[in-house]
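SEQUENCE AND FOLD
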Amino acid sequence: MEDVKLLKSISLFKGFSTTELLSINMSAKSKGYEKDETIVKEKARGDGLYIIKKGKVRVVKTDSFGDEHILAFLGRGEYFGEISLVDQAPRSASVIAEEDTECLAIKHTDFQNLIAGNKEIERKFYKAFSIVLCERLRIANENLTFSQEISRLVQELEKR
């Protein structure tokens, strides 16, 4: 029941009933990771959603020069990998345990089985995914605009 309470507190599961959250929880498996252990590796095939039960992780992306850039730190109640439930495309970043961490993992096949048996859960998941993707697209657009403004300023300074 503790895991259901956790799910209930996460925005991704907003609007889900307790019964639906119980079904989702039954599809999830708890797994522990030690400090500095890689949970998901950039460019590896996506295999599912991870919800942090305890601990902290860092999300890192490697650039074309091989340098790692920290994109985010995530803690209890935050999640990653949700898009792989839909497309199983390669991971866009690595996620590494910053400290001993425990996650609830919902694998792609378990998710597919869950939504095949419950169209209401499927509808709610895809609605929630849409909202998450819209939020991330807005942030990406802001970051791109900011990056372009910085480039323009650098070019203007170099002309002087």
